[in-house]
């Protein structure tokens, strides 16, 4: 009886210890062939929102995203776009790459979009 309780607790401990790191590495969004974890998306959003809130930009980001493509975002706008980098670092200037996080003025995530696979200067959803 006692053995089964210990085994159950050990199994629970091992499965949650392993599951947390695996969940962290799971793709929350895939832009082209680039996998972004939820923590990478959150970091990019936080970096963009911090600049937005301060009224400053890095290489003109963040800036208003006009949603010409007509995405049905789960939050209301005004929307802002900010680069998300495949390196995992938060954008601080230079080439923004193809991928963007989109958030609103309330710091709510609208989505992740990319130029990869889109025509011209348009975006597609990740």
TrEMBL record:
Matches recorded under InterPro entries: N1-like, Ribonuclease/ribotoxin, RNase_U2
Stored CDD domains: fungal_RNase
Keyword list, A-Z: Disulfide bond, Endonuclease, Hydrolase, Lyase, Nuclease, Signal
EC assignment: 4.6.1.24
Lineage of origin: Eukaryota, Fungi, Dikarya, Ascomycota, Pezizomycotina
Catalysed conversion reaction: [RNA] containing guanosine + H2O = an [RNA fragment]-3'-guanosine-3'-phosphate + a 5'-hydroxy-ribonucleotide-3'-[RNA fragment]
Similarity remark: Belongs to the ribonuclease N1/T1 family.
GO molecular function: hydrolase activity; ribonuclease T1 activity; RNA binding
SUPFAM superfamilies reported for this sequence: Microbial ribonucleases
Entry-linked PANTHER family: EXTRACELLULAR GUANYL-SPECIFIC RIBONUCLEASE RNTA (AFU_ORTHOLOGUE AFUA_4G03230)
Stretch forming the signal peptide: 1-19
Name listed for the protein in its UniProt record: ribonuclease T1
Enzyme class at the top of the EC tree: lyase
Domain of life: Eukaryota
